[in-house]
Amino acid sequence: MARKVLVAVVSLVFLGIAGLGQTPKLGGEMVIAFGTDPEALDPNRITSAPAGMVLTHIAETLILMDEQLKLQPLLATSWTVSEDGKTVVLNLRKGVKFHDGTPFDAAAVKANLDRFRTATFAFLLYPRVQTVDAVDEYTVRLNLDMPFAPLLSHLSHNFVAMLSPKQLAALPAGQFVMDPVGTGPFKFDKWVRGEYVRVVKNADYWGDKPYLDSVVFRIVPSDATRLVLLETGEVHAIMRVPPMDAPRVAKVRGVEVVNLPGVRTIYIGFNVTKYPFTDVRVRQAFNYAVDKEAIVKEILGGAGGASNAPIMPLIFGYTPQEPYKYDPEKARLLLKDAGIPKGYKVTFHHPTGRYVMDAAICEAIQAYLRDVGIELELVTMEWAAYLAFMNKPVAESTHLMYMLGWGTVTLDADYGLFSLLHSSQWVPVGSARSYYKNDTVDALLEAARTIADPGARKDLYARAMSLIWKDAPWLFLHYEGQINAQRTMAKGLVHHPREYILAHKAWIDR
Amino acid sequence: MIQYAVRRLLLAIPTLFGVTLLVFGMVRMLPGDPALTLAGAQATQEMVERLRQEMGLDEPVHIQYIRFVGDLVRGNLGKSLRTNHPVAAEVAQRFLPTLELSLASLLLAMAFGIAAGVVSAAKPYSVFDYTSMVAALVGLSAPVFWLGLMLMLLFSVRLGWFPAAGRGTLAHLILPSVTLAASSIALIARFTRSTMLEVLRHEYIATARAKGVREIWVVLRHALRNALIPIVTIIGLRFGALLSGAVLTETVFNWPGIGRLMVDSILARDYPVVQGAVIVVAGAFVFINLGVDLLYGIANPRIRYE
Amino acid sequence: MRELVTRLGKHRLAIVGLVIILLCLVAVACAPYLAPRDPLRFSLRDKLKPPSPTYLLGTDELGRDLLSRIIFGTRVSLMMAVVSVGIGLVVGTPIGAISGFYGGTLDILTQRTVDVVMAFPGILLAIMVVAVLGPGLWNAMLAVGISFVPTYVRVVRGAVLELREREFVEAARAVGTSNLAIIRRHILPNCLAPLIVLSTLQMASAILWAAGLGFLGLGAQPPTPEWGTMLGRSQVYIRVAPHVAIFPGAAIALAVLGFNLLGDGLRDALDPRLRGRL
């Protein structure tokens, strides 16, 4: 499995090189199609990958996470973390201007980070970051109340993008930015709700100027329709190719399929406070009963991979565990041991149209479990209702078994484990919907937050994950792969594991 | 007649008021809430609480309703909870494409429906009559979304004649409007045929024929003219159905219309947008019906308004 | 009655419709015997197979036999149609009858309420009702049924308004028959013709609406084979396996066609004046 991911990463590099071989041509408009309209273009308000993708062309972050998932300088040229981990100093890039001419400096960063305290995803910084100081014109200091190791990767998240302080100051209270003014290679041009967002070249960009005159992000909700648009040449690149179509699309002339790992883990959670999932044997039996490899291969078209840890391989802190190999016989034995009669009924709530092939996967799980004598009653819920239903405190919870995904967008195990499996994070406080509690796991996850040394952190996560794995609060399913596709004439596009297609350095080969 | 129009307009007020109550109530009965939905499955309680406060969802429901109706009377539809955009702008932007689609479908339906109906009536029980009536029935029976998918599969994927989806040129309009028009073409064709057959039985038609008027003129000038009134009524009634059918057609063809906006906002629990869109659509429906009734009166002076 | 049958018999298309409906009913009654395979048995390796002698209509995304699923789907679709039309009929008829018979404030109130519901975009009302109640077969039926109520109220009220002034009603009144008895014995039996025609045609709409809800993912719950849900799922595979979209859609169209044809025939046979109104 690790090898598969490696192949994907290597092919990413390859795409980049293929673009470098030729001389880029200037001009033109590139069209990228994706599924959902951004909810906003204000870093303070956005919650989804599509919004992040559009924003990252316009507004830049202090630190960049490149497609190899390495931290690189962007608006900050260098940074240092103090010995005790409680101070982070960032040195800022000089000579950068926002699209409205406002200079980028320490005051601008402070204005943005202070405003970020009220953001939807404020947890990316807070509550650990207590104050922000502008030390001098190009130096910023973040003061933390306790060490928070993942902070730097959090700062690389596209939701923490810098906007012009002039724009922020002029913004009436209660309003959000709709036409972001950033420092990026493209300037905001137009947003027609439900149709497209258009950005145009920033001729005064501080770095390498973009080749394209403009980029259009077209909103096309239907997967099938998006694909047709690519095949007919109406768009240059699309996200989320239906897995079954990928082999066919790969053969279409002038089109190439891009396979890359995603950062989303899909799992079936058990409510461990409710019978029969109070019994670890039942939870393990369910894990043995389902052929995850077959699901990935047959339903997901081989994109992504079967989980062998609660987080996926690209996340910092990942250590593979011994997989629950598909073994219906073992599952039957475990269930018999646990005293579960044949034909036992369990309700299973799941969303539809949220994750790749979600409903089909749930039906497959239903069929696998029927094989070992468990009758799953599927309840498909529409997303908003599902969220409300799943967000109940443990005493009011009625769910037994549920499907959810988790995108570890910070690419650090802390975000991938803490909110889901630490006992302080039971919903509605955090996102722990299995109400799992293991004191050792709690202690390990807490410790890994505050230690700075990467080697030691990785070790703590390895120990926590091995306990979680054996306790099996989830049916560990798979991590999603991304299947994107593009016209071969679209050069230099970067397909990013954070579910972005980036056109910063793209050009059209006419 | 003006009196009648005024009376009908006044009657529209309680109807639309009822619509506000119904949509407000329904929307709030939906399980889930906008803050939680926007924040998503990875949100913390803190984030959700903050959003909920920003969205003004902490207020008691009846206060929210009074505010909503008060704003509505002053022509203010409020702001989207999700995007903070004014609802009026959002609805206006999405209403136009739907209107465009519905009108195009209506034109298609009238052109093909009346033509097929007239030819069928002129030569009843002929091969054309049977084929067109069976075709009409199939058109009436096929699910809109299925028909859309099939047309897309054939004409844009296999043949490449039309763009598959989206809005822009006239070519973009063809497949969705044909899809949406199918059931109306069928209805209008069948109705035109039966009305024409009835009219053609009348004495004055026989008189015209006896006078040696050419058959084509008999059918077109004498019969069709008299058949037109009931046909127009049916067409007017179809317009409301078209607005409703647009929901599914827009989904299939990625048409950025108000049908999709309504479904999307219901799913996102964006209360003000659902409310605004439904009221605008309901208003359009009420006024179109009124227009049809008045038109009916102008076309047929024998009708007396009660 | 005999006259009706003869008249209907002359209506060739109505006979075709009747035959289609009878075929559907056979499928409903004998699904387990007709279906070549278990509609729930899956085999991931055989997914999305095109039609072949083994799988006459091919397989779906989990490798289940499409033909068997469509045959079993007849049960679901017809039941949905019958129940939702039943709801519309049972709720709408008395409201329409009482509103039309008594008139006055009650009538005005009913009419305004019907106006409100009718001004509400139809499918949207169903979507919201399903969202409130939660998805599922019964809730979908309820949603569609509720959306049908206003049509029944309108039609029955219209018929009652006409009947109210007729001699036999006057006569019944004169001999002191109570209002409810008049409605039951004289009015409703005379509304039968439009109700039969309307219900047949509404069966067609109900199948379409139910399929629409299924298409949007709000209909029957898996693994229940339901045509609309099957069709909705198939959208993703439409390019690689068009048969998964074509056949369930064709099944829907055929069943709807059957009810439309029969409804037309019944209308012409029972009461040609209804043409254009229903």
Portion in beta strands of chain A: 15-25%
Tally the beta strands of chain B. 0
Order of helices and strands of chain B: HHHHHHHHHHHH
Class by helix and strand content of chain A? alpha+beta
Distance between the termini of chain A: 38 Å
Shape of chain A: globular
Helix share of residues of chain B? Answer: over 70%
Radius of gyration of chain A: 23 Å
On the 0 to 100 scale, the average pLDDT of chain A is 90
Oligomeric state of the chains present here: heterotrimer
Query: C-alpha Rg of chain B, in Å?
Result: 24 Å
Strand tally of chain A: 21
> What's the story with the biggest beta sheet of chain B?
none
Strand percentage of chain B lies at: under 5%
Choose one word for the global shape of chain B: elongated
Word description of this protein:
The complex is a heterotrimer of chains A (510), B (306) and C (278). By secondary structure, chain A is α+β, with helices and mostly antiparallel strands. Chain A is globular, with a radius of gyration of 23 Å. Chain A has helices spanning 2-20, 49-58, 106-115, 151-155, 165-170, 223-231, 246-250, 280-289, 292-299, 328-337, 358-371, 383-390, 413-421, 439-450, 454-471, and strands at 29-34, 63-65, 71-73, 76-81, 87-92, 129-136, 139-144, 186-192, 196-201, 214-219, 237-238, 255-270, 305-306, 344-351, 374-381, 401-407, 474-487, 490-491, 494-496, 500-502, 507-508. In chain A, a hairpin with a 5-residue loop joins β2 and β3. In chain A, 30% of the residues lie in helices and 24% in strands. In chain A, the strands form five sheets. In chain A, strands 1, 8, 9, 10, 11, 12, 13, 14, 15, 16 and 17 form an eleven-stranded mixed β-sheet that branches. In chain A, strands 4-5-7-6 form a four-stranded antiparallel β-sheet, covered by helices on one side. In chain A, strands 2-3 form a two-stranded antiparallel sheet. With 306 residues, chain B is mainly α. Chain B has twelve helices and no strands. Chain B has helices at residues 2-29, 34-39, 45-54, 61-73, 87-122, 127-141, 144-158, 170-200, 203-210, 215-253, 258-268, 271-299. Chain B is elongated, with a radius of gyration of 24 Å. Chain B starts with a helix and ends in a 7-residue tail after the last helix. Chain C is mostly helical and 278 residues long. Chain C has helices at residues 2-10, 12-34, 66-102, 104-119, 122-133, 137-164, 167-174, 179-215, 227-234, 243-270. Chain C is elongated, with a radius of gyration of 22 Å. The mean pLDDT of chain C is 86. Chains A and B meet through α6, α12 and β16 of A and α2, α3, α5, α7 and α10 of B.
